[in-house]
Design goal:
Layout: H1 2-22, E1 28-37, H2 41-48, H3 51-54, E2 68-72, E3 81-85, E4 93-102, E5 106-112, E6 118-128, E7 131-141, H4 146-152, H5 155-177
Antiparallel strand pairs: 1-7, 2-3, 3-4, 4-5, 5-6, 6-7
């Protein structure tokens, strides 16, 4: 009986330690990837300023071609919104709306993954001679949930590869058009 009490006490202490340490972890998950595209920002901007155009290079739609997509608002720019629904666990369901758009420079979006939470994403276009550096960023506030903070440590690993693939797709698409 004494051994069982010690095991239970140890497990309780371990859980409390993990919870306590979680509050020392970052409160935000941030992912960012960049690529150089051999084209001016004006040739790239239309593909990041319209949810409809993202279909052409999205890394997630290739995972589940059966993903249900619907659009609302204007065709591009602020208010352009995508809603998607998929049974695939790496695609899921949610909405993304463009909330800021500066031609040939910046696009910011608000993401809502339903019970999985909210986040924001951005595209920054920076001219470099005849080329443009495109940076795709993601940020999510993890709040005070200890589990979310531990999972936040894995966000770069989980999303980073998809961002790299998406940027490679975008590069191939844009450079194939110019």
């Amino acid at each position: 009986m004494r051994v069982i009490k010690r095991i239970v006490l140890f497990l309780i202490c371990l859980v409390l330690l993990l919870i306590g340490v979680s509050y020392l972890l970052p409160g935000k998950a941030i992912v960012s990837r960049s690529i150089i595209i051999d084209a001016p920002a004006s040739a790239i901007f239309p593909y990041v300023n319209s949810m409809q155009e993202t279909e052409k290079w999205s890394p997630w739609l290739a995972r589940d071609p059966e993903t249900q997509l619907s659009y609302s608002g204007p065709e591009a720019g602020v208010g352009n919104t995508l809603s998607w629904s998929s049974e695939h666990p790496q695609v899921g369901s949610g909405t993304q709306e463009i909330i800021e758009s500066v031609p040939d420079q910046t696009v910011r979006t608000a993401l809502d993954f339903g019970p999985m939470g909210t986040a924001s994403a951005s595209f920054e276009l920076a001219p470099e001679g005849d080329q443009t550096q495109v940076t795709w960023g993601f940020e999510s506030d993890l709040g005070i949930n200890p589990m979310a903070r531990w999972m936040g440590l894995m966000m770069d690993k989980w999303v980073g590869g998809d961002y790299e693939q998406g940027l490679s797709n975008l590069k191939a698409l844009v450079e194939g058009q110019t």
